[in-house]
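REQUEST ID: PR-0412
SUBMITTED BY: lab tech R.K.
PRIORITY: routine
TASK: structure prediction, single protein chain
INPUT:
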Amino acid sequence: MITTFFRTLTGQLAVVAIAVSAVVGWVASIKSKAVTEERARVEQKSNQNAQKATAARRSADKLPPDRLRDRFCRDC
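STATUS: complete
OUTPUT:
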């Protein structure tokens, strides 16, 4: 009974539709995983940059104001 269904046009179309939807779902899953990993990588890099900026700001706050000027600046 089931084998006769798959021999009909409707049965064959159902098998093709299931196969196509499985492939589309698989591709969407791969893309979603890649996007999630990239977002995590960007977030990690931005946190590292923020920590570097905070460390640079703290080290600059410790110096006296005269030391922050460049000796080659023309408008000092």
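NOTES: Helices lie at 2-7, 9-62.
REVIEWED BY: pending
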